[in-house]
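Hey team,

Sharing the Inositol oxygenase run so nobody has to redo it. Sequence (305 residues) first:
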Amino acid sequence: MASATEQPQQEIHAENKNIPSDDPSRSKLDGGFTMPETNTFGQTFRDYNAESERRKSVEEFYRNQHINQTFDYVKKMREQYGKLNRTEMSIWECCELLNEFVDESDPDLDEPQIEHLLQTAEAIRKDHPNEDWLHLTGLIHDLGKVLLHPSFGALPQWAVVGDTFPVGCAFDDSNVHYKYFKDNPDYNNSMYNTKNGVYSPGCGLNNVVMSWGHDDYMYLVAKENMTTLPSAALFIIRYHSFYPLHRSGAYTHLMNEEDVENMKWLHIFNKYDLYSKSKVRIDVEKVKPYYLSLIKKYFPAKLKW
Ligand SMILES: [Fe+2]
Ligand SMILES: [Fe+2]
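Structure output:
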C-alpha cells in the first residue's frame, strides 16, 4: 500500500487537466465498500501514459497550494466570497453551469459532470435509501468548483481543489507533499506554527480556519442561504477534502463532540467518491424530478452565490 503522503489525493481528481484522479490504492483503503476496478474506458483509475509527468504536475499543484494558502489569504477569501454577491441561481442551475466547463480532460470520465454528481448521489441512495439529505449532499458537495468559472473570478486550481488542511496552526506532516509548507510564510510565524496555533484544544472544527477551496465555499453558500440540511451534511460538504483528518487522523485535538459524531457520516460519504466515476450510467431526465424535490425541500428556489 502506497504511503498517503506520496500519493496524490482524491479531490484534485476530477477537476483537472493533467492532475490525476483517484489513487488506485484507494480501493484497499476504503474499508468494506467495494470499489469498481475500472473507469468508463475499462482501464484502472488514473491510468495515465505519462506516469512521471502526472506525478510532476501533482507535485507542482501541491507546491503552489502549500506556499500560497496562508492564514491571511484564507481570511481574505472567506470575507470576499462570503458576501455571496456574484450571482443568484438555483442548485440545479449551478449543476448545469459546472457541467459546462469542468473535467473535460479527466481521463476517468467521458460523461458530463452532471452525471458524475448524480452517480455519487445515486450510489448513496441505493445503500442508504432513507437518508434523503445524504443523497442531496452527494449531488451538491462539489458545486463549489464554480470558483474556477470566469464569473467567479476563475481562481487558480490551488485555490479550488486538492486536499484541505487547517491554517493558523502547525501543518501536520501527514499532509501530502508536506515539504512545500516550508516556503509558506506561516511556517516560520510563531503565531501560527505551534501545534494549537491560534486555536485551543477541543475548540471544534467550526472555529478552525481551513485552506480555501470548493469545500468551504459551498459550505458558506449552503449555510448563508439558510439550508435546512442537517449539520452532518454541512460537515461533509465542508470537510470532504480534509484527508489529513479523515484518512490520517491528524488534527483530531481540535475536534469537539459534535465533530466526532459528524465524522461518522463523513467516513460513510467518502466511500462513494470513487464509485461516482464508474461505468454506471445515469438517466439524468429520469432521476431529475427526485433531486428537484430534494432541492425544494432543503433549499430556497434561488440561492445567492
Ligand atoms: Fe470535492
Ligand atoms: Fe467529489
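The first helix runs from residue 26 to 29.

Ping me if you want the raw files.
A.
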